[in-house]
Write a structure and sequence with these properties.
- The complex is a heterodimer of chains A (about 120) and B (about 110).
- With about 120 residues, chain A is an all-beta fold.
- Chain A has no helices and eleven strands.
- Chain A has strands spanning about 5, 10-15, 20-25, 30-40, 45-50, 55-60, 60-65, 70-75, 85-95, 105, 110-115.
- In chain A, β6 (about 55-60) and β7 form a beta hairpin.
- Chain B has strands at about 5, 10-15, 20-25, 30-35, 45-50, 55, 65-70, 75-80, 85-95, 105, 110-114.
- Chain B contains no helices and eleven strands.
- Helix content of chain B is about 0%, strand content about 50%.
- Classes of the chains: A mainly beta (about 120), B mainly beta (about 110).
- The interface of A and B includes residues 91, 104 and 105 of A.
């Protein structure tokens, strides 16, 4: 079946540094991707999304890059802060089918911010 | 505006019993999605309800079922509980039928099967 995976299970960065979290996806027909942040004891929180017709999208301190050639997605966090410590998931949405639309998630990357 | 609310926050059941989990979507959202998040794993899609109908289900056995009520709240039922059903069950709602755009998650119900 289709899957979305992450390259690194844990990422440790120093406070103030930039963080880069990577994700590989397998469904080349997916046309929408989302990054979520999940803090301990909470549900996933939307961070940023990107459509397949884009290769970059910027938000507040976050940038998502999409490389469709190698089916790779990355999340860049600028000036990482202690509050950024969480598990980050990428998710893909395949094109709408008669069976409906659902998110496919990877395992996640644990981001640890060191003071 | 209240977010997606789930109850209970924690649930402990014995193997073989049944569990019922509840979800109230954001006001105006008609689609409800259920996901299972086992420890150390990603979120696995369980069920999707929209306008009171089950629209799609993931690769889970029939003992996982649910329903959506006229007020768009939803219930997930797990029958004949097994130890491996222990997980965080997350509900998400969406304002666009059939789409995860604008998807908002609740904080989940932690189900422990002993």
């Amino acid at each position: 079946g289709e899957s979305v995976g992450l390259h690194l299970p844990t990422l440790s960065v120093q406070e103030g540094d930039n963080s880069i979290i990577n994700c590989a996806y397998s469904n080349s027909a997916s046309d929408y991707f989302i990054w979520y942040k999940q803090e301990s004891g909470k549900g996933p929180q939307f961070i940023i999304d990107i459509r397949s017709n884009m290769d970059k999208r910027q938000g507040q301190r976050v940038t998502v890059l999409l490389n469709k050639t190698v089916k790779h997605l990355s999340l860049q966090i600028a000036a990482t802060q202690p509050g950024d410590s969480a598990v980050y998931f990428c998710a893909e949405i395949p094109p709408l089918t008669g069976g409906g639309n659902k998110l496919t998630f990877g395992t996640g990357t644990q981001l640890k911010v060191e003071l | 505006e209240a977010g997606v609310t789930q109850s209970p926050t924690h649930l402990i059941k014995t193997r073989g019993q049944q569990a019922t989990l509840r979800c109230s979507p954001i006001s105006g959202h008609t689609s409800v999605y259920w996901y299972q998040q086992a420890l150390g794993l990603g979120l696995q899609f369980l069920l999707w309800y929209d306008e009171g109908e089950e629209r799609n289900r993931g690769n889970f056995p029939p003992r996982f079922s649910g329903r959506q009520f006229p007020n768009y709240s939803s219930e997930l039922n797990v029958n004949a509980l097994e130890l491996e059903d222990s997980a965080l069950y997350l509900c998400a709602s969406s304002f666009v039928s059939g789409s995860n755009l604008g998807n908002t998650f609740g904080s989940g119900t932690r189900l422990t099967v002993v």
